[in-house]
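lol forgot to send this yesterday, sorry. struct tokens for the thing we talked abt
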């Protein structure tokens, strides 16, 4: 019954939208508070990005922008909420590689079809994964880590922010390239995954920098390398995996806003333009840089092209490795 009412409301909105010019529709939106679903816990890089941007958007839109953390199912739980929302742009999700580009190759069944049910709106940030280890490990370089991991003969535990996440697949790729084995220990988000490394429950992990930095400063976690092809300005003291002998491991974690397919183009264009303005704000850029995150922005079309290319590249890697998560 509730879904029937939601569909009726969506149909009514679509009828109203068709009677308005694109300019009038964009000017009238938003008509009520906007919700941004974050498929990760508070303190994660996704949460940091969303709250910084939402704070700027609420003033520009004249409506509250509510941040709703819904971690679980490798990000699919939160993304699904946007996929099934009325197509009016009032419910967005900050999607990322895992539940958008990787999941179709990892799962036989998903609660949504990314290509059919979601509309890319704007890319927000991009950041490399960082190879990090517990500071008590006797390693300070990638070469030392690989030698140590091989000597452990499979008795290595690595954490990630969820099954099928960029963190999970980047370590799987590295194990294949470097020739060592380990046990995957997934968590719901980067804060608990980073904490596991800090506490010694996991030996290592790949993830973006924000959740790692407090533990690096406390001396409990050591960062060894980034998975970008070039050193980002925010992590310029860290070598890349390419510099460390593994040029094949090019893994960048991206995120961006998505809304339900069928949302009027004028609304998508307005959200895109306003988020781009927010990302160019010097204060937001500085705050993101301090967290090891790079503001991106750009058009919805550019974002879709990146998603398609990422899915093609990682889909081949996933299929070659034979990784399936719902067998």
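and heres what i got for the seq, position by position
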């Amino acid at each position: 019954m509730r879904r029937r009412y939601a569909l009726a409301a969506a149909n009514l909105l679509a009828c109203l939208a068709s009677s308005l010019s694109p300019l009038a529709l964009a000017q009238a939106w938003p008509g009520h508070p906007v919700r941004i679903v974050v498929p990760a816990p508070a303190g994660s890089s996704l949460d940091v990005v969303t709250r910084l941007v939402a704070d700027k958007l609420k003033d520009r839109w004249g409506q509250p922008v509510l941040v709703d953390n819904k971690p679980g199912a490798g990000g699919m739980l939160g993304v699904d909420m946007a996929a099934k929302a009325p197509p009016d742009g009032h419910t967005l999700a900050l999607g990322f590689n895992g539940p958008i580009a990787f999941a179709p190759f990892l799962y036989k069944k998903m609660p949504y079809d990314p290509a059919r049910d979601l509309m890319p709106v704007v890319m927000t940030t991009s950041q490399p994964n960082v190879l990090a280890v517990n500071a008590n490990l006797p390693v300070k370089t990638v070469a030392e880590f690989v030698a140590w991991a091989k000597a452990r003969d499979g008795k290595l535990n690595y954490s990630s922010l969820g099954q099928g996440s960029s963190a999970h697949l980047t370590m799987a790729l590295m194990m294949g390239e470097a020739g060592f084995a380990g046990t995957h220990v997934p968590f719901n988000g980067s804060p608990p995954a980073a904490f596991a490394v800090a506490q010694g429950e996991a030996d290592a992990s790949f993830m973006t920098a924000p959740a790692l930095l407090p533990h690096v400063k406390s001396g409990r976690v050591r960062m060894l390398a980034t998975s970008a092809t070039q050193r980002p300005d925010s992590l310029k003291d860290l070598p890349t995996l390419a510099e460390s002998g593994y040029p094949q491991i090019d893994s960048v974690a991206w995120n961006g806003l998505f809304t339900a397919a069928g949302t009027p183009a004028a609304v998508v264009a307005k959200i895109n333009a306003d988020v781009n303005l927010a990302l160019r704000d010097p204060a937001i850029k500085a705050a993101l840089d301090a967290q090891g995150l790079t503001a991106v922005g750009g058009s919805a079309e550019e974002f879709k092209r990146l998603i398609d290319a990422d899915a093609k590249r990682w889909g081949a890697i996933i299929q070659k490795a034979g990784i399936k998560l719902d067998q």
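The two ends are 33 Å apart (CA to CA). anyway ping me if u want another try
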